[in-house]
Amino acid sequence: LRLLQIDLLSWIELGRWHHSRKAMRPLPDFTARRLYKWWRMIEHHHDLHSMRTQERHHLRIEIKKLRYALEFVQPLHVQAGGKHKHFYRAVERIQESLGRLNDLANSQTIARKLGHKPPRSKGEVREIEGKCLAAAQTSLDRLKKIGPYWTKLS
Question: What pTM value is reported for the model?
């Protein structure tokens, strides 16, 4: 294990990758491009109510990638101030709302597959779906209004 650690540290500090064109690019530019890639996957969605469950699940995965990337590069964006915080909060809220929708759909499906009565009535499901979709849509609209704040930082 100790030799592995030494080899890994040696590769990190002295490896040939260190001198490649990609490794020499400024980190803020690189991260801005990566964040923008995830942003493009999200921004073209408009009406979450018209999406199927599976489509919303895939959107949630893309939002999760953006959220974790934002957490990782947050120290690079301290000069973004409130915009960063508002954007991140909206990302967090849409991920949570879509997660609740996914959990709801899965619990109903699993119960049926196991031959049990679903844990919630159709009316309860519609009510919860409506609240979660409204919260997710509000957060998505907020994200679009704020826009990719990091492009103004590079």
Answer: 0.78
